[in-house]
């Protein structure tokens, strides 16, 4: 097989390595015995010995190589720097190019890349002195730039393929005054000057994905001003930011855009009023509306007439869900909701209809449980990667990406070498250049493996940095302008004819990488999500406008399952707790007002209980139950409890009155509890005491008798006064008659004689009348009635 063959430039076979090691071990036994009797060399002497050799004491960096894939009439230009990292000055130095042998296999390219700076490995013959740059001396710690240009016809390239290109520095030191190679940097030179008869169809996924930024919290205004977890998204979409560069670079490439709808929704929210964290627990109004509008406009232009794949909302971690979440009730329903909302979100913001048939587990690592979860929400294509979905059939070439794995599901296996080519720090020009050349070398070698046309998929890291995106764009531009590859969309790649010899068996769970498993979201994540969802389900049924709460919290729960929380367990826990705590705060805004002890006088009375609603919207479908813990003493509504429906407008309170009846004196405890219409308790109960004071019949008789006595006493006083007044009137009439019968004295006519005062003298007008008549001790007559 080609991949297993021992071509020049690759490492020796295992048998040959074993023979060499055995011989070296046997030959070294006497030497080791002698060395064991010698004192260990001090560190200073060891450093001196290493410096004396000079091997590898110079660092060679290749910053540019143009053109990356030359044709026959081109001139290859290589530029970079050399740095003396040793302790001795290097003299008579020069930098030259050396073309190594043709690399026939992809594994051979890997081997050269691993040992790219090894001065002991074969370098090949140096091109003539005319194509080199000389340095009189290189001082320790000092860097010198170089630029070398060589016509392609001087490189002596032969058949199509990938050649090793080494940039080496040779020179002398005072310890070793003879020419020697002191530093080298190997890279690759793809050579395919003519159009290939059968081109490889290459699909490059271009991800627009970020971390979680929005919370579940919204303002009480009609627009529901969103609150962001941080303000980092503004930096990413600002000019020069990571996402800004992804859009600017991707718009000129033939790629498949793979987008998390949450990113679009978050940026779209920033185009209006939004809030971000301020000092302490306060929030401040965000000010990046113009930046958000500009970025969304550029995305709309970039994806117009391009293929767009929408991931489930929030980019949920399928592996974590499969391994830790399926045992928690309701977890898969969140994946279904995230998938359902994905298409409408992308369509509403970008005005394109995306494909939602693809699931993308982390790093394309799959096992049967991941595939089952990935397809449970409707996706029938799972993007895997060849370093986990490995070939077991011994193929000598890389097969096409699609693999039918049963049940109508297709595994789209991305090429691991091409997909991981741009990982690491690409801010250095040398690192970026080497990544581009290695990517092109792997792509060309793959295309030359067989005459069959194949569909190859490249699935890079989910969130490339700005420098990684730049390197990806450079490599892809060269590839799309090259002679051995042509672009293809992801949908077409998934529908391509599968290779009948390719492996279609999904790797077992035991093959799942442990390095990925240790970063998965734990079971507690999904338990907390389920707990929050249960609270939300109970809360939403009482709301007059459920969408104001269900939508932001539903999307927040999707975000809690995001791949972006991998490796950030503490931040993920803080976010989840914040979502649940905010929901608890909203739930507590609808509550019963506490009551103090209530006193009841009489056999029946009314008890009011107040329900307060501090939400913006009204609540309904609530039932208030008032329960007596001692119904033999105090009944409510003729029974142990009574229920009444409750509806309260936003920002108002509602008093609900219950009729009670007392059967005995004493204290009875009463419990008020809100319920939803399906019988679920809502909020905390309110407990208070009712003190009953019952009024008996004897007391009523005593009070009634007292009142009657007062009435009778008043009546007696009235009759006595009336009788006294009648007697006085009779006496005055009798005296008047006597005066009329007496003889008159003519001398004294018209005058009244002066009378002496006596007991029987009539009262004078100035005398006060008696307040009450004289008490009559006689028994009541037959016509009187006295009530007792």
From TrEMBL:
Q: Where is the composition biased (Basic and acidic residues)?
A: 726-735
Q: Which residues cross the membrane?
A: 695-715
Tell me the InterPro entries matching this sequence: DUF6049, Ig-like_fold, TonB_box_CS
Keyword check for Nucleotidyltransferase = no
Q: Where is this region: Disordered?
A: 726-788
Gene3D superfamilies listed in its UniProt record: Immunoglobulins
Pfam families, from UniProt?
A: DUF6049 (PF19516)
Native organism is: Streptomyces atrovirens
The protein's name is: DUF6049 family protein
UniProt keyword list: Membrane, Transmembrane, Transmembrane helix
Does this UniProt record's set of keywords contain Secreted? Answer: no
């Amino acid at each position: 097989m080609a991949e297993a063959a021992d071509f020049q430039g690759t490492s020796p076979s295992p048998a040959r390595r074993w023979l060499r090691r055995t011989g070296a071990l046997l030959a070294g036994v006497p030497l080791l015995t002698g060395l064991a009797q010698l004192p260990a060399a001090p560190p200073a002497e060891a450093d001196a010995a290493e410096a004396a050799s000079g091997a590898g004491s110079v660092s060679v960096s290749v910053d540019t190589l143009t053109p990356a894939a030359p044709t026959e009439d081109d001139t290859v230009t290589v530029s970079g720097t050399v740095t003396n990292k040793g302790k001795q000055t290097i003299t008579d130095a020069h930098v030259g190019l050396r073309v190594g042998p043709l690399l026939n296999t992809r594994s051979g390219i890997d081997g050269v890349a691993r040992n790219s700076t090894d001065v002991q490995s074969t370098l090949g013959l140096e091109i003539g002195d005319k194509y080199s740059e000389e340095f009189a001396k290189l001082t320790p710690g000092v860097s010198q730039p170089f630029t070398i240009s060589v016509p392609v016809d001087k490189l002596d390239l032969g058949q199509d393929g990938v050649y090793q290109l080494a940039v080496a520095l040779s020179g002398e030191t005072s310890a070793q005054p003879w020419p020697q190679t002191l530093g080298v940097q190997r890279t690759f030179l793809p050579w395919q000057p003519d159009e290939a008869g059968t081109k490889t169809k290459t699909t490059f996924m271009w991800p627009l994905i970020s971390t979680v930024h929005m919370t579940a919290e919204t303002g009480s205004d009609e627009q529901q001003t969103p609150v962001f977890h941080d303000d980092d998204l503004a930096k990413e979409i600002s000019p020069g930011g990571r996402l800004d560069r992804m859009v600017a670079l991707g718009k000129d490439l033939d790629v498949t855009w793979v987008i998390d709808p949450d990113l679009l929704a978050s940026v779209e929210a920033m185009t209006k009023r939004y809030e971000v964290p301020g000092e302490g627990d306060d929030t401040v109004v965000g000010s990046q509306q113009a930046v958000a509008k500009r970025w969304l406009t550029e995305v709309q232009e970039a994806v117009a007439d391009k293929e767009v794949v929408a991931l489930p909302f929030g980019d949920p971690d399928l592996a974590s869900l499969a391994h830790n979440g399926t045992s928690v009730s309701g977890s898969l329903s969140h994946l279904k909701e995230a998938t359902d909302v994905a298409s409408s979100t992308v369509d509403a913001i970008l005005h394109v209809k995306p494909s939602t048939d693809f699931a993308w587990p982390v790093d394309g690592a799959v096992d049967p449980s991941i595939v089952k979860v990935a397809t449970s929400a409707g996706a029938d294509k799972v993007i895997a990667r060849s370093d986990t979905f490995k070939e077991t059939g011994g193929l000598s070439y890389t097969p096409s990406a699609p693999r039918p794995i049963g049940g109508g599901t297709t595994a789209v296996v991305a090429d691991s070498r091409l997909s991981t080519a741009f990982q690491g720090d690409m801010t250095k020009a040398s690192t970026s250049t080497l990544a581009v050349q290695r990517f092109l070398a792997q792509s060309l070698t793959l295309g030359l493996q067989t005459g069959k046309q194949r569909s190859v998929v490249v699935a890079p890291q989910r969130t490339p940095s700005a420098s990684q995106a730049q390197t990806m764009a450079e490599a892809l531009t060269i590839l799309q302008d090259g002679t051995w590859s042509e672009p293809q969309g992801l949908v077409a790649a998934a529908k391509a004819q599968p290779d009948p010899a390719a492996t279609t068996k999904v790797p077992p769970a035991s093959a799942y990488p442990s390095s990925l498993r240790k970063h998965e979201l734990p079971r507690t994540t999904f338990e907390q999500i389920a707990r929050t969802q249960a609270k939300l389900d109970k809360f939403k049924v009482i709301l007059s406008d459920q969408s104001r709460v269900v939508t932001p919290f539903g999307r927040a729960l999707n975000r809690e399952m995001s791949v972006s929380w991998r490796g950030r367990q503490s931040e993920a826990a803080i976010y989840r707790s914040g979502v649940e705590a905010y929901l608890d705060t909203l739930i507590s805004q609808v509550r019963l007002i506490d009551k103090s002890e209530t006193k009841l006088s009489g056999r029946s009375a009314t008890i009011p209980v107040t329900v307060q609603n501090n939400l913006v919207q009204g609540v309904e479908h609530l039932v208030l139950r008032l329960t007596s813990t001692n119904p033999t003493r105090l009944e409510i509504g003729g029974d142990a409890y009574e229920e009444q429906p409750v509806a309260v407008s936003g920002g108002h309170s509602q008093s609900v009155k219950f009729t009670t009846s007392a059967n005995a004196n004493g204290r009875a405890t009463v419990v008020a509890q809100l319920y939803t219409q399906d019988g679920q308790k809502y909020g905390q109960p309110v407990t208070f005491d009712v003190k009953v004071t019952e009024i008996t019949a004897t007391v009523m008789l005593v009070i009634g008798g007292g009142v009657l006595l007062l009435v009778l006493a008043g009546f007696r006083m009235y009759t006595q006064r009336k009788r006294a007044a009648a007697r006085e009137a009779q006496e005055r009439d009798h005296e008047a008659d006597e005066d009329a019968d007496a003889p008159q004295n003519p001398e004294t006519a018209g005058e009244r004689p002066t009378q002496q005062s006596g007991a029987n003298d009539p009262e004078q007008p100035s005398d006060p009348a008696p307040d009450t008549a004289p008490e009559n001790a006689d028994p009541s007559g037959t016509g009187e009635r006295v009530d007792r």
